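Dear Dr. H.,

I hope your travels went smoothly. While you were away I took the liberty of generating a structure for the chain from your last submission, since the lab meeting agenda had it listed for discussion. I wanted you to have the full record in hand beforehand rather than looking at slides cold. The sequence, exactly as received, is reproduced here:
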Amino acid sequence: SADLKIRKLVTPANPTVGSTVTYTITVSNDGPGNATNVMVNDQLPAGISYVSHTASQGSYVPGTGDWNIGTINNTGDAVLTLVGTKTSPNIITNIAEITAADQSDPFPLDRKDSATIPIQVADLSISKTVSPQAPQYGQQATFRVVLKNNGPTAATGVIAQDSLVSGLSYVSSSVTQGVYDPVSGEWFIG
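The corresponding predicted structure, in token form, is as follows:
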């Protein structure tokens, strides 16, 4: 028999959309015998696009997620590193599982492990001020809109809405980031 176990880690723990994600999968043999014809399956889930991989031994097929390790000697281990790009802000769970070995496993419950990336959360707040505070008829008023990200992660695809109310006519605008459309009142921040 050969007691095989698998462990899976993801770094960084809370990546933003568009950032690189690294999964490290370690298969260990706690013996007492050598393990032969060891196979693992770890296919990257939706929300992670494949970039590259490195295997300490055997061969990995990105399309199927099959890692043909071969033999892991008693007290030995094999490591697979998968690199991908996060493409979704949603919760992403990646599962790795030992799917085959020639020897029986006296403790089969540790032949599967997962790593979860939490939902991307960004606490956005917006504030608006006007100067002068009580403009007279025909006088220009300047509105300042500040959008702040209080974290913990970066926000993507942000759009704010700020249309002028009846009785005001648009003169000009400037933004520190993105583009403001005075017709729709949408500020495409990014």
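Two observations you may find useful: The mean pLDDT is 94. The first strand starts at residue 2 and ends at 11.

With kind regards,
E. W.
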